[in-house]
Write a structure and sequence with these properties.
The protein is an alpha+beta fold and about 70 residues long. Helix content is about 25%, strand content about 40%. It has two helices and five strands.
Length: about 70
């Protein structure tokens, strides 16, 4: 199962999916949207948020935690 497939499944039951960028170790949260995967790192102005493809998510990120509620 790919990281993207895990993300899609996790969204069915989890409120928050924590992720880590493999190359940098930078952590944040992610969720799917019609354009791919929205990645949020936490800057209050949203300057570090981005939307990436499912392929890029599989290659560059890993799911660290799935939090219910």
């Amino acid at each position: 199962m790919t990281e993207y497939e895990k993300l899609v499944e996790a969204e069915k039951t989890c409120h928050t999916i924590e992720i880590r960028e493999k190359a940098t170790g930078k952590e944040g949260v992610a969720g799917t949207n019609p354009d791919g995967v929205a990645v949020f790192y936490g800057a209050s102005d949203g300057s570090d948020d981005k939307t990436i493809s499912a392929e890029e998510f599989n290659e560059c990120f890993e799911i660290m935690a799935m939090i219910n509620n």
